[in-house]
Amino acid sequence: MRKVSRLSRFNIASLALGLAFLYLPILILVLYSFNASRLVTVWGGWSLRWYREFFNDRAMIEAAWMSLRVAVCSATIATLLGTLAAVALSRGERFRGRTLFSGMLYAPLVMPEVITGLSLLLLFVALNAERGFWTVTIAHTTLTMCFVAVVVQSRIGSLDRSLEEAAMDLGCNPVRAFVAVTLPLIAPAIVAGWMLAFTLSLDDLVIASFTTGPGSATLPIRIYSEVRLGVKPEINAICTLVIALIAVVIVIASLASKLSSSQGESAAPL
Amino acid sequence: MSSRRIFARPARFAAIAPYVWMALFFLVPFAFVLKISLSQTAIAQPPYEPVFDLTAGWEALKAAFAALSVDNFRLLGSDDIYVFAYVRSLTVAVTATALLLLIGYPIAYGMARLPKRWQAIAMVLVIVPFWTSFLIRIYAWINILQHDGLLNQILLALHLVSQPVVWLSTDTAMYIGIVYSYLPFMILPLYATLAKMEPVLEEAASDLGAPPWQVFWLVTFPLSLPGVGAGVLLCFIPIVGEFVIPDLLAGSNSLMIGQTLWLEFFTNKDWPVASAAAIVLLVVLLLPLLLYERLQKRQLEQGR
């Protein structure tokens, strides 16, 4: 017989403190973005002043637009390639160079970003490619497709194979069985993978700094150069907007994964 | 005949596009890093002497090979700045990973003991900060830790200190930033193994008379070791090469290797030395990287 609750007071305290530690700094940042006063020490009442300042900041808006385009493009390509990679790894059995393939896919997940960024830049320079939108997009695709592959692969791993077998017993060829049976089942994971790729791209500073060219800074690059000069309320406003955008993305992703878990045992990674 | 077999052939074709992409944009670039780390610095654009010129024919290629030099690596070994940077990176990573384990374990343990329905909610709550921007999370701490920031205001109001404490540009701030940013990476693998553990094992131990700390130390902790390993590697490897956190939160008198690499590259424009630094960093991380990869592979392919 299993006891109803095994929670000790220690467990509850560590959970509460842990969650407070994770969330308080972000809440404080959001709160101060609505502060009318320039000083952090003074609460000058609620105001949207810093948001107006952001929308009048031409360079910042341009950077934000660049970041959004890069994020959408790289996430889309990464989702396509990452899903293919996941299918190959979980259904492809043995093929030549499989170990190298999985190695290349898992290494970027933890590889320090300075190394990935530097190596890609050297490649682009050697190829004489003009640095800007496309080089950043390619760099982000390379990083984020690995995350997509892991998310999708763990979903495929939890699928019941007999469904595909049934489809093929009923006369589908493998590709048809995949499109008709497997694809709808892993669709939520693919959506979640896209969202993850999107936010990772939106977030990246180091790789973008290496691979972008003059005149095409992304939002994190602009924020970083401002932050180095000190705290500015306008940055709080921009950060709050980014958090809001990501929150919307998370809601969509969690709806997708809810759909996924209602269809079977879900193994949510990350 | 199993479906795996039938699927195998088309699935193998699925590998082609991502394979080519990763080879081109992940593997090949390392060859360039290696190549440039062996060439001489030059005041030019790009700022290094070309090592190979394939159009120049075989004789020229042989001459180029002869001109390869390990000077940049020798510089890394002889210049204290770099040696210190590597030592500091490893020290910071070890300390921060230990802190993460100490802080993350109780949280993961608490999560695993929640009723099933709450576990899902707790997991989402831990994952959400991972989705919000890295840079924003560090910036949030700058807000709190700055001279007239919230922390100093609270400490002053409680009369715990008589004048504002300097938090920014200290190692304390850097460790806070690292722990804050990497905590989800430590909690999730720990939680994954702890949640799978059979509660009867702990119950049996305590029924047989073991005090709680012994139950934990002899049963729970050894069983959670796979999660500990995954969490430690997932944090340790990227922290060694971390750039943003030490750059924004720690002082500038002792740099980590990620920072020196950045500095060599962007400020000193010494690409060959930066490349050599990257190669050394990669070699240092090779063992943990291989370990991590094996863990990841085993974990993902258990479902097969």
Structure keywords:
heterodimer; A: 270 residues; mainly alpha; 0% strand; B: 304 residues; globular
Give the gist of this structure.
The complex is a heterodimer of chains A (270) and B (304). Chain A has 270 residues and is mostly helical.
Approximate strand percentage of chain B: under 5%
Dominant shape of chain B: globular
**Gap between N and C termini of chain B:** 16 Å
Distance between the termini of chain A: 32 Å
Overall pLDDT level of chain B:
83
Number of helices of chain B: 15
Overview of the structural elements:
The complex is a heterodimer of chains A (270) and B (304). Chain A contains 11 helices and no strands. Chain A has 270 residues and is an all-alpha fold. Chain A is globular. The C terminus of chain A is likely disordered. With 304 residues, chain B is mainly α. In chain B, 77% of the residues lie in helices and 0% in strands. Chain B contains 15 helices and no strands. Chain B is globular and about 80 Å long. At the A-B interface, helix 1, helix 3, helix 4, helix 5 and helix 6 of A face helix 1, helix 2, helix 5, helix 6 and helix 7 of B.
Furnish the topology, listing elements before pairings.
The complex is a heterodimer of chains A (270) and B (304).
Chain A: H1 9-33, H2 49-55, H3 58-91, H4 98-110, H5 113-126, H6 133-157, H7 161-169, H8 174-203, H9 206-211, H10 219-227, H11 233-262
Chain B: H1 3-14, H2 16-37, H3 57-67, H4 71-78, H5 80-113, H6 116-131, H7 134-145, H8 150-157, H9 171-196, H10 199-207, H11 212-223, H12 225-240, H13 244-249, H14 257-267, H15 271-301
Helix pairs in contact in B: 2-15, 4-15, 5-9, 5-12, 6-9, 7-9, 9-12, 10-11, 12-15, 14-15
